[in-house]
Protein backbone atom coordinates (compact mmCIF):
# COMPACT_ATOMS: atom_id res chain seq x y z
CA UNK A 1 0.00 0.00 0.00
CA UNK A 2 1.35 3.41 -0.97
CA UNK A 3 2.30 5.87 1.74
CA UNK A 4 -0.41 8.30 0.62
CA UNK A 5 -3.09 5.58 0.85
CA UNK A 6 -2.00 4.68 4.36
CA UNK A 7 -2.17 8.33 5.41
CA UNK A 8 -5.71 8.59 4.02
CA UNK A 9 -6.76 5.52 5.99
CA UNK A 10 -5.25 7.00 9.17
CA UNK A 11 -7.24 10.21 8.66
CA UNK A 12 -10.43 8.19 8.10
CA UNK A 13 -9.94 6.14 11.26
CA UNK A 14 -9.21 9.31 13.26
CA UNK A 15 -12.53 10.80 12.09
CA UNK A 16 -14.33 7.62 13.12
CA UNK A 17 -12.63 7.73 16.53
CA UNK A 18 -13.86 11.28 17.05
CA UNK A 19 -17.43 10.15 16.38
CA UNK A 20 -17.21 7.14 18.68
CA UNK A 21 -15.75 9.23 21.51
CA UNK A 22 -18.54 11.78 21.12
CA UNK A 23 -21.18 9.02 21.15
CA UNK A 24 -19.56 7.54 24.26
CA UNK A 25 -19.80 10.87 26.09
CA UNK A 26 -23.45 11.33 25.06
CA UNK A 27 -24.34 7.81 26.18
CA UNK A 28 -22.61 8.38 29.53
CA UNK A 29 -24.63 11.55 30.16
CA UNK A 30 -27.88 9.84 29.23
CA UNK A 31 -26.99 6.86 31.40
CA UNK A 32 -26.68 9.07 34.47
CA UNK A 33 -30.16 10.49 33.86
CA UNK A 34 -31.57 7.00 33.33
CA UNK A 35 -30.05 5.82 36.62
CA UNK A 36 -31.64 8.77 38.40
CA UNK A 37 -35.05 7.89 36.96
CA UNK A 38 -34.73 4.29 38.15
CA UNK A 39 -33.76 5.46 41.63
CA UNK A 40 -36.70 7.87 41.69
CA UNK A 41 -39.15 5.12 40.69
CA UNK A 42 -38.16 2.68 43.41
CA UNK A 43 -39.83 4.40 46.41
CA UNK A 44 -43.12 4.74 44.52
CA UNK A 45 -42.96 1.17 43.24
CA UNK A 46 -42.20 -0.10 46.74
CA UNK A 47 -45.11 1.82 48.28
CA UNK A 48 -47.49 0.58 45.57
CA UNK A 49 -46.33 -2.98 46.11
CA UNK A 50 -46.91 -2.75 49.87
CA UNK A 51 -50.37 -1.22 49.44
CA UNK A 52 -51.32 -3.88 46.91
CA UNK A 53 -50.08 -6.64 49.19
CA UNK A 54 -51.97 -5.27 52.19
CA UNK A 55 -55.19 -4.92 50.18
CA UNK A 56 -54.76 -8.46 48.84
CA UNK A 57 -54.33 -9.78 52.39
CA UNK A 58 -57.48 -7.97 53.54
CA UNK A 59 -59.59 -9.02 50.54
CA UNK A 60 -61.46 -12.30 50.53
CA UNK A 61 -60.14 -15.18 48.42
CA UNK A 62 -63.34 -15.20 46.38
CA UNK A 63 -62.93 -11.56 45.42
CA UNK A 64 -59.30 -12.16 44.51
CA UNK A 65 -60.29 -15.02 42.22
CA UNK A 66 -62.90 -12.84 40.51
CA UNK A 67 -60.38 -10.15 39.54
CA UNK A 68 -59.74 -10.79 35.80
CA UNK A 69 -56.07 -9.78 35.96
CA UNK A 70 -55.41 -12.00 38.99
CA UNK A 71 -57.43 -14.86 37.54
CA UNK A 72 -55.51 -17.55 35.68
CA UNK A 73 -57.06 -18.93 32.52
CA UNK A 74 -57.92 -22.60 32.60
CA UNK A 75 -55.79 -23.31 29.54
CA UNK A 76 -52.88 -21.37 28.13
CA UNK A 77 -53.34 -21.62 24.39
CA UNK A 78 -52.01 -18.22 23.26
CA UNK A 79 -48.90 -16.62 24.70
CA UNK A 80 -48.07 -12.93 24.25
CA UNK A 81 -44.39 -11.99 24.22
CA UNK A 82 -43.37 -8.36 24.75
CA UNK A 83 -39.90 -7.53 23.43
CA UNK A 84 -38.38 -4.37 24.93
CA UNK A 85 -35.62 -3.17 22.60
CA UNK A 86 -34.18 0.17 21.49
CA UNK A 87 -34.92 2.48 18.59
CA UNK A 88 -31.28 2.62 17.53
CA UNK A 89 -28.32 0.30 17.11
CA UNK A 90 -24.59 0.68 17.80
CA UNK A 91 -25.07 -0.86 21.25
CA UNK A 92 -23.36 -4.21 20.88
CA UNK A 93 -25.60 -7.21 21.52
CA UNK A 94 -28.19 -5.14 23.42
CA UNK A 95 -31.02 -5.64 20.90
CA UNK A 96 -30.04 -8.97 19.36
CA UNK A 97 -29.93 -10.85 22.68
CA UNK A 98 -33.51 -9.84 23.49
CA UNK A 99 -34.70 -10.92 20.05
CA UNK A 100 -32.89 -14.25 20.31
CA UNK A 101 -34.27 -14.97 23.78
CA UNK A 102 -37.84 -14.20 22.70
CA UNK A 103 -37.57 -16.30 19.54
CA UNK A 104 -36.22 -19.23 21.55
CA UNK A 105 -39.16 -18.98 23.95
CA UNK A 106 -41.58 -18.73 21.01
CA UNK A 107 -40.07 -21.85 19.43
CA UNK A 108 -40.56 -23.75 22.69
CA UNK A 109 -44.20 -22.69 22.96
CA UNK A 110 -44.92 -23.50 19.33
CA UNK A 111 -43.29 -26.91 19.73
CA UNK A 112 -45.75 -27.50 22.58
CA UNK A 113 -48.67 -26.66 20.27
CA UNK A 114 -49.32 -23.14 21.55
CA UNK A 115 -49.80 -19.96 19.56
CA UNK A 116 -47.59 -16.91 20.03
CA UNK A 117 -48.43 -13.24 19.64
CA UNK A 118 -45.67 -10.66 19.53
CA UNK A 119 -45.62 -7.18 21.00
CA UNK A 120 -42.52 -5.04 20.51
CA UNK A 121 -41.31 -1.78 22.04
CA UNK A 122 -38.49 -0.20 20.05
CA UNK A 123 -37.81 0.07 16.33
CA UNK A 124 -35.16 -2.63 16.41
CA UNK A 125 -37.56 -5.21 17.77
CA UNK A 126 -40.36 -4.19 15.40
CA UNK A 127 -38.14 -4.24 12.32
CA UNK A 128 -36.60 -7.58 13.30
CA UNK A 129 -40.02 -9.20 13.68
CA UNK A 130 -41.23 -7.72 10.39
CA UNK A 131 -38.08 -8.99 8.66
CA UNK A 132 -38.91 -12.50 9.90
CA UNK A 133 -42.53 -12.16 8.71
CA UNK A 134 -43.73 -12.09 12.33
CA UNK A 135 -45.98 -9.06 12.35
CA UNK A 136 -46.34 -7.78 15.92
CA UNK A 137 -49.83 -7.32 17.34
CA UNK A 138 -48.59 -4.15 19.03
CA UNK A 139 -45.69 -1.93 17.96
CA UNK A 140 -44.47 0.96 20.15
CA UNK A 141 -41.60 3.12 18.91
CA UNK A 142 -40.07 6.54 19.33
CA UNK A 143 -39.43 6.70 23.09
CA UNK A 144 -36.66 4.22 23.96
CA UNK A 145 -34.21 7.02 24.87
CA UNK A 146 -36.59 8.52 27.43
CA UNK A 147 -39.76 6.49 28.05
CA UNK A 148 -42.61 8.14 29.93
CA UNK A 149 -45.21 6.62 32.19
CA UNK A 150 -47.80 7.33 29.49
CA UNK A 151 -45.85 5.06 27.13
CA UNK A 152 -45.84 2.28 29.70
CA UNK A 153 -49.54 2.78 30.36
CA UNK A 154 -50.34 2.48 26.65
CA UNK A 155 -48.44 -0.79 26.41
CA UNK A 156 -49.90 -2.27 29.60
CA UNK A 157 -53.42 -1.25 28.57
CA UNK A 158 -53.13 -3.19 25.31
CA UNK A 159 -51.67 -6.22 27.05
CA UNK A 160 -54.24 -6.15 29.87
CA UNK A 161 -57.12 -5.79 27.41
CA UNK A 162 -55.84 -8.72 25.38
CA UNK A 163 -55.58 -10.82 28.54
CA UNK A 164 -58.97 -9.85 29.97
CA UNK A 165 -60.69 -10.34 26.60
CA UNK A 166 -59.20 -13.80 26.30
CA UNK A 167 -57.13 -13.03 23.20
CA UNK A 168 -54.04 -14.19 25.11
CA UNK A 169 -53.74 -16.45 28.13
CA UNK A 170 -50.32 -15.42 29.33
CA UNK A 171 -48.07 -12.38 28.89
CA UNK A 172 -44.30 -12.49 29.23
CA UNK A 173 -41.88 -9.59 28.90
CA UNK A 174 -38.26 -9.76 27.73
CA UNK A 175 -35.96 -6.86 28.56
CA UNK A 176 -32.39 -6.04 29.50
CA UNK A 177 -32.05 -5.61 33.25
CA UNK A 178 -29.57 -2.93 34.26
CA UNK A 179 -26.84 -4.04 36.64
CA UNK A 180 -23.95 -1.71 35.80
CA UNK A 181 -22.69 0.23 32.77
CA UNK A 182 -20.67 -2.86 31.85
CA UNK A 183 -23.25 -5.50 32.70
CA UNK A 184 -26.79 -6.04 31.49
CA UNK A 185 -28.74 -9.27 31.77
CA UNK A 186 -31.67 -10.57 29.78
CA UNK A 187 -34.72 -10.91 32.02
CA UNK A 188 -37.82 -12.91 31.28
CA UNK A 189 -40.76 -12.18 33.54
CA UNK A 190 -44.42 -13.17 33.61
CA UNK A 191 -46.49 -9.99 33.47
CA UNK A 192 -49.96 -11.54 33.35
CA UNK A 193 -51.70 -13.24 35.06
CA UNK A 194 -50.74 -11.15 38.06
CA UNK A 195 -51.00 -13.78 40.75
CA UNK A 196 -51.10 -13.35 44.51
CA UNK A 197 -47.60 -14.81 44.70
CA UNK A 198 -46.39 -12.08 42.36
CA UNK A 199 -47.92 -9.39 44.56
CA UNK A 200 -46.34 -10.87 47.68
CA UNK A 201 -42.93 -11.15 46.05
CA UNK A 202 -40.41 -8.58 47.31
CA UNK A 203 -38.21 -7.34 44.47
CA UNK A 204 -34.83 -6.00 45.45
CA UNK A 205 -35.14 -3.03 43.09
CA UNK A 206 -37.96 -1.55 45.17
CA UNK A 207 -36.58 -2.21 48.63
CA UNK A 208 -35.85 0.87 50.71
CA UNK A 209 -32.96 -0.38 52.80
CA UNK A 210 -32.45 -3.53 54.89
CA UNK A 211 -35.37 -5.29 56.44
CA UNK A 212 -36.16 -4.63 60.09
CA UNK A 213 -34.91 -7.63 62.14
CA UNK A 214 -37.61 -7.01 64.78
CA UNK A 215 -41.19 -8.11 64.10
CA UNK A 216 -43.17 -5.11 62.92
CA UNK A 217 -46.58 -4.37 64.37
CA UNK A 218 -49.28 -3.82 61.78
CA UNK A 219 -51.64 -0.92 62.09
CA UNK A 220 -55.35 -1.54 61.81
CA UNK A 221 -56.41 -0.28 58.39
CA UNK A 222 -60.01 0.44 57.48
CA UNK A 223 -60.73 0.32 53.78
CA UNK A 224 -63.34 2.45 52.09
CA UNK A 225 -65.22 1.35 50.08
CA UNK A 226 -63.67 -2.14 50.50
CA UNK A 227 -60.33 -3.95 50.14
CA UNK A 228 -61.66 -5.54 46.96
CA UNK A 229 -62.54 -2.19 45.42
CA UNK A 230 -59.18 -0.69 46.32
CA UNK A 231 -57.39 -3.76 44.99
CA UNK A 232 -59.25 -3.42 41.70
CA UNK A 233 -57.77 0.08 41.40
CA UNK A 234 -54.26 -0.85 42.54
CA UNK A 235 -53.71 -3.93 40.36
CA UNK A 236 -53.81 -2.04 37.00
CA UNK A 237 -51.39 0.51 38.43
CA UNK A 238 -49.16 -2.35 39.51
CA UNK A 239 -49.10 -3.66 35.93
CA UNK A 240 -48.35 -0.16 34.62
CA UNK A 241 -45.44 0.22 37.03
CA UNK A 242 -44.08 -3.21 36.07
CA UNK A 243 -44.02 -2.23 32.39
CA UNK A 244 -42.58 1.21 33.20
CA UNK A 245 -39.83 -0.37 35.27
CA UNK A 246 -38.94 -2.69 32.37
CA UNK A 247 -38.75 0.31 30.01
CA UNK A 248 -36.51 2.27 32.38
CA UNK A 249 -34.25 -0.73 32.98
CA UNK A 250 -33.99 -1.25 29.23
CA UNK A 251 -33.17 2.42 28.63
CA UNK A 252 -30.37 2.42 31.19
CA UNK A 253 -29.06 -0.86 29.80
CA UNK A 254 -29.09 0.53 26.26
CA UNK A 255 -27.10 3.62 27.23
CA UNK A 256 -24.65 1.50 29.22
CA UNK A 257 -24.22 -0.96 26.35
CA UNK A 258 -23.74 1.86 23.83
CA UNK A 259 -21.22 3.61 26.06
CA UNK A 260 -19.25 0.38 26.41
CA UNK A 261 -19.46 -0.38 22.69
CA UNK A 262 -18.30 3.11 21.73
CA UNK A 263 -15.42 2.98 24.20
CA UNK A 264 -14.33 -0.35 22.74
CA UNK A 265 -14.63 1.09 19.23
CA UNK A 266 -12.49 4.07 20.21
CA UNK A 267 -9.84 1.79 21.69
CA UNK A 268 -9.87 -0.38 18.57
CA UNK A 269 -9.55 2.73 16.40
CA UNK A 270 -6.50 3.81 18.40
CA UNK A 271 -4.92 0.39 17.83
CA UNK A 272 -5.66 0.58 14.10
CA UNK A 273 -4.11 4.06 13.95
CA UNK A 274 -0.96 2.77 15.68
CA UNK A 275 -0.69 -0.15 13.24
CA UNK A 276 -1.25 2.08 10.22
CA UNK A 277 1.25 4.64 11.52
CA UNK A 278 3.83 1.88 11.91
CA UNK A 279 3.08 0.69 8.39
CA UNK A 280 3.39 4.22 7.03
CA UNK A 281 6.74 4.68 8.78
CA UNK A 282 7.98 1.43 7.27
CA UNK A 283 6.88 2.58 3.82
CA UNK A 284 8.63 5.90 4.35
CA UNK A 285 11.78 4.17 5.55
CA UNK A 286 11.72 1.87 2.52
CA UNK A 287 11.38 4.86 0.20
CA UNK A 288 14.28 6.66 1.90
CA UNK A 289 16.42 3.53 1.72
CA UNK A 290 15.60 3.15 -1.97
CA UNK A 291 16.55 6.77 -2.67
CA UNK A 292 19.86 6.37 -0.82
CA UNK A 293 20.65 3.25 -2.81
CA UNK A 294 19.89 5.08 -6.04
CA UNK A 295 22.17 7.99 -5.04
CA UNK A 296 24.98 5.60 -4.10
CA UNK A 297 24.56 3.67 -7.33
CA UNK A 298 24.68 6.91 -9.35
CA UNK A 299 27.78 8.09 -7.52
CA UNK A 300 29.54 4.78 -8.17
CA UNK A 301 28.70 4.98 -11.88
CA UNK A 302 30.47 8.35 -12.12
CA UNK A 303 33.71 7.11 -10.62
Q: Could you characterize the architecture of this molecule?
A:
This protein is of the alpha/beta class and 303 residues long. The chain has two domains: 3-21 and 260-296, Orthogonal Bundle (Helix Hairpins), CATH 1.10.287.80; 25-197 and 221-258, ATP synthase, F1 complex, gamma subunit (Pyruvate Kinase, Chain: A, domain 1, 3-Layer(aba) Sandwich), CATH 3.40.1380. The protein is built from seven helices and five strands; from the N terminus they run H-H-E-H-E-H-E-H-E-E-H-H. Strands 3-2-1-4-5 form a five-stranded mixed beta sheet, sandwiched between helices. Strand 2 (115-121), helix 4 and strand 3 (138-140) form a beta-alpha-beta unit. The longest helix is centred in the C-terminal third of the chain and has 76 residues, at 227-302. It starts with a helix and ends with a helix. The model is unreliable at 202-219 (pLDDT under 50).
Helix content: 55-70%
Give me the CATH architecture of the largest domain, please: 3-Layer(aba) Sandwich
Shape: elongated
Secondary-structure-derived class: alpha/beta
Low-confidence stretches: 202-219
- Radius of gyration over all CA atoms, rounded: 28 Å
Looking across the biggest beta sheet, what order are the strands in? Answer: 3-2-1-4-5
Rounded mean pLDDT score: 84
Query: How many E strands?
Result: 5
Q: What top-tier CATH class of the largest domain fits best?
A: Alpha Beta
Helix count equals 7
Q: Please summarize the sheet with the most strands.
A: 5 strands, mixed
The name of the CATH superfamily of the largest domain reads ATP synthase, F1 complex, gamma subunit
Question: Could you tell me the strand content as a percent range?
Answer: 5-15%
Provide the domain count: 2
- Straight-line distance between termini: 36 Å
The succession of helices and strands, N to C, reads HHEHEHEHEEHH
Amino acid sequence: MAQRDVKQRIDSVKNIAKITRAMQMVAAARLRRAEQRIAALRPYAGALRRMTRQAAEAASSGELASNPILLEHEQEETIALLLVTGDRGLAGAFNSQIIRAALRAAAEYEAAGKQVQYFAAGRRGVSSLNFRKLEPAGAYVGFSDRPSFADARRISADLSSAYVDGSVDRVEVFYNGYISPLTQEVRREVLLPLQRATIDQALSEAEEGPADPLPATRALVEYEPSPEGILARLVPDYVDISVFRALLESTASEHGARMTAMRTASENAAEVIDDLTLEMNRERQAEITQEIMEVVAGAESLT
